[in-house]
Amino acid sequence: AQVYLNGEFVPVEEAKVSVLDRGFLFGDGVYEVIPVFAGKPLQEDAHMERLYRSLDAIELELSQTPEDFHGMFTRLLELNKESAKHLTIYLQITRGVVEKRAHGFPEKPTPTVFAMTIPLEPNIRTSLDEAPTGRAITQKDRRWQRCDIKSTSLLGNLISFQKAYREGMAESILIDCKGRVTEGASSNVFAIIGDRIITPPLSKRILGGITRALVLEIATRDGCYLCEERQLKVEELREASEIWITSSNREILPIVELDGAAVGAGNPGEVWRHIAGLYRIYRDQVPEINDD
Ligand code: PLP
């Protein structure tokens, strides 16, 4: 595979970063994961906006513009188009290499910019009848208070996810100290309660998922169900008729079991089928619209 590192495209084996890179020393960096369908990044503008918001939040300025990134992505996808039908672009920017390890931000950083492609799960385009489902557990949200920054420092998320992972589950759903759902270890959470689609509101305690926003937009435009962005108690989650997790990698994944108990009938629900169907239509139409 060919990857991008600081202005060059090189085979992955040849891409090397110094041990004095602040990304390595401190996890001092931010990232994006952009799904690519039929060669076109989905929601690229939204991902770029979030990237620059993350960079602002960590006071890191870049000379590259979103247009520069667009050009780089195009070349990267071209170089890797044989590797899989559908890919994601992983883009990471750190505060770069320093002379010595010190906490304070360097005055004139030279950011390390890295991008690679990762094959998307092959099951992502199967029919809705064959679409994957997952089980989840709840875990205390022990992360920091700026989860809105898409930081590469992910230890809190990793530790939370590990118990679910060991047990073969799809996700750990995180619960704050007041018993409210925040998000998944690497996803946003939706619950169906009555005829409403509910997801926790944007705040510094969650990452504003691009998939979350798209699902809300599609569901609102469709109008069959009411959408509510509001606090969601874990007890309500346990009573929900459907639970979904959303992310760029997993789209809208129905959770059929939570902490060992069936969610609804223990199958993907009707609301999921409706919204996931609309999501796929949107996703698969975008490339054609862009081709005009
Ligand atoms: N929340 C967290 C903590 C994540 O890591 C992710 C994605 O990996 C998401 C939410 C979903 O974000 P997106 O839909 O932009 O992929």
TrEMBL record:
One of its GO terms (molecular function) is transaminase activity. The keyword Transferase applies. It comes from Parendozoicomonas callyspongiae. Keywords: Aminotransferase, Pyridoxal phosphate, Transferase. It holds the Pfam family Aminotran_4. This is Aminotransferase class IV. Gene3D superfamilies: 3.30.470.10, D-amino Acid Aminotransferase, subunit A, domain 2. The keyword Mitochondrion does not apply.
